[in-house]
Amino acid sequence: MPKIVAISNQKGGVAKTTSCISIAAALAEDGRQVLMLDLDPQANLTTACGFDPDELDWTIADLLIPEGSEEIPSITEIIQHSVMEGLDILPADMRLAALERRMYDQAGYENRLEELAESLSGYEVILIDCPPSMGALTLMGLSAAQMAVVPVQCEYFASRGLMQLLEIVNVVKDQTNPELRFYLFASMYDQRNLVSRQVLESLQEHFSENMFDTIIRIDTRIRESAMVGEPIHMYAPKTRAADEYRALAQEIITIL
Ligand SMILES: Nc1ncnc2c1ncn2[C@@H]1O[C@H](COP(=O)(O)OP(=O)(O)OP(=O)(O)O)[C@@H](O)[C@H]1O
Ligand SMILES: [Mg+2]
User: Fold this and answer.
1) Beta bridge partners of 152
2) Distance from residue 13's CA to the centre of ligand 2 (Å)
3) Which of 4, 130, 160, 166 sits at a 20 to 30 Å CA gap from 146?
């Protein structure tokens, strides 16, 4: 069975998708077989890998809503290879949004991803890009994962959102996934900003046991790489951002 990491934070725009693709690429660069799973109806991860969600024959939505599709594809038919060797993606499209609304009525929906993952023995690691909400899709992602990895932007309101997230993690631990562990890291960090420095310090103090040492700083090359549809380790492998994500991936894999 592959190890599963869910990149999650209900706050929007904190670098979940960027971190998913960059951590995955760093692991693949290191010779591992890695699958990224797009669990966001926005399908930003799918797009960042260079795919147009509307042009794909199948996406993860077809696995999760089998009724409605005439023919149910196998998971291997849906998986796409990325531009990097060893790095694959299970793409998403906007139908996931409608699916999420119907999921609450389905008993045991939280376990659907874990069941799917059991058929993916060829991968060492699966990284799930969760949407910016705490709905059924995120609960499904957290229920399947061994580890929730939470990017935090060091801003004034960061800790309030984190408390809500930790409550959800505790609910998932109680109800579906007692093994779930969570770790934070600082994303899009701006060291010139005093508030950022103070927030980082307070996070490191409060979450000392649950915080990765690596800090991901702001780097415009990361934005460019998403626009060309390539991971930073392909687009600009010698940049600071690529190195920082290598260090973070190493920290994650060491304790996964
Ligand atoms: N280290 C970084 N330096 C500069 N820009 C970054 C960095 N990390 C992410 N970004 C940019 O910040 C924006 C938000 O990132 P991203 O889409 O990964 O966030 P997200 O948490 O997945 O958003 P959403 O909640 O909408 O899914 C993107 O434009 C991305 O390119
Ligand atoms: Mg995203």
Assistant:
1) 186
2) 7
3) 160
pLDDT in tens, 128-141: 999 999 999 999 99
- Separation CA 214–CA 124 (nearest Å): 22
Question: Is residue 82 included in any domain, yes or no?
Answer: yes
- Nearest Cα to 141, choosing from 102, 149, 82? 149
Q: What is the CA radius of gyration of the chain?
A: 17
| Pocket mutation for ligand 1, best pick of 7, 10, 16, 18 (most atoms within 8 Å of C-beta) | 18
| Pocket-testing residue among 8, 9, 11, 17, ligand 1, by greatest number of atoms within 8 A of Cβ | 17
Atom of ligand 1 nearest to the CA of 189: 1
Could you tell me the CATH number of the domain that includes residue 133? 3.40.50.300
pLDDT of 145 over the 90 cut: yes
Nearest-CA neighbor of 164 among 6, 14, 2, 8?
Answer: 8
- pLDDT, tens digit (0-9, with 9 covering 90-100), for 20-32: 999 999 999 999 9
Residue 24 tokens read as 């995955």
Count: domains in the chain: 1
In a domain, 253, yes or no: no
The answer for residues whose C-beta is within 8 angstroms of residue 122's C-beta and 6 or more apart is: 33
**Structural domain span for residue 217:** 3-247
Q: Which residue has the tokens 């307070």?
A: 202
Q: What is the pLDDT of residue 117?
A: 87
Tell me, yes or no, whether 255 lies in a domain: no
